[in-house]
Amino acid sequence: MPDITLSNVQKSYGGASPLAVNNLNLQIGDGEFMCLLGPSGCGKTTTLRMIAGLEGLTSGEIRVGDQVVDCPAKGRFLGPEKRGMGLVFQSYALWPHLTIERNTDFGLRLRKVPKAEREARVAKVMKALDIEKYRDRYPSQLSGGQQQRVALARMLAVNPGVLLLDEPLSNLDARLRLEMRAELKRIHAEFRTTIVFVTHDQWEAMTLATRIAVMNEGTLQQIGTPNDIYDRPANRFVAEFVGSPPINILDLGSDHPLDIAARDWLRTRLGERADLGSAGLRPEALQVAMTEGNVPAGSFRHPAVVTGILPTGGSWIIEVNCEGRVVFLTTTESPALRGGEEVWLHARPTSLHVFGQDRQRLAGADEALARAAAGMAAVRQA
Fold it and tell me: What architecture (CATH level 2) is domain 248-381?
């Protein structure tokens, strides 16, 4: 399947309502697993439906390879049945009166695929998705996870160039969601189908995608690999949306002692910049020392009081209070701490995500903090 390119795509439902999708530019490569991630109402499902041809653009253009499939300015619109794409909805939409085998071959029968070829394709996808043993059952006799496999098998049987998935795992319980994530990874590796996956679940996006497009209020916020999105969030929205427990945000313009300490510490490394807005610290980037003397030289630090230790099975969330400000950190080692104990929080320079007053990642800050970290390493070696 050729690349899918969205250029300056806008979608409006009329009236005074804001644009559902605003000036979206996005390229999805052949064989890619792209996740559209964002909160409810951010425009991700609308984007998926425009790619599928179920929604028309207000303006802009969608191309599949060199072919324009939707462009109002050119009077061009290619119907969904001609785009070579398969769509799996949040609801499985299986025919209740048809067996699993008949549900799976439904699209092939509509296309009048010869019987021998139809049976071969159905056998292949049913085996791949481990639903062969259910071929003579009906949807009501299967669990939610099994029905989801049937819905995927029905789409894969027609061999679409692109598989579009609209929050297909949201109706499953936690264990089935985990199993289906692994199943989708395997399907992608085996069939090499281009997949566009809509979700509001950050962990689904992080574990499944080759690239993630984060959206908010109809606007693309950042696109990159899962590591890019997590390690270098482009703005404060992305930093706060991705991560659990959420990132700790320090307001560099406030008069709280923790914020003042962060602002002063950053100014010694970034200079007297007027555009400092906020800084973020991931919970796993924070560490605890019992005395200030045990804090590595050059680290950001602040005194705190332990207020809670929350085991999560395999890791622990530690809640501390910094003069009225609650901060969370995580550890994979059982903490030898007690409630009410006084400690020192600390973090390496490269652990801080610095954002400007426009809430965008602050230009030049990463490089300056990396130099500070290199200086710390040189001091330790000396």
Answer: Beta Barrel (2.40)
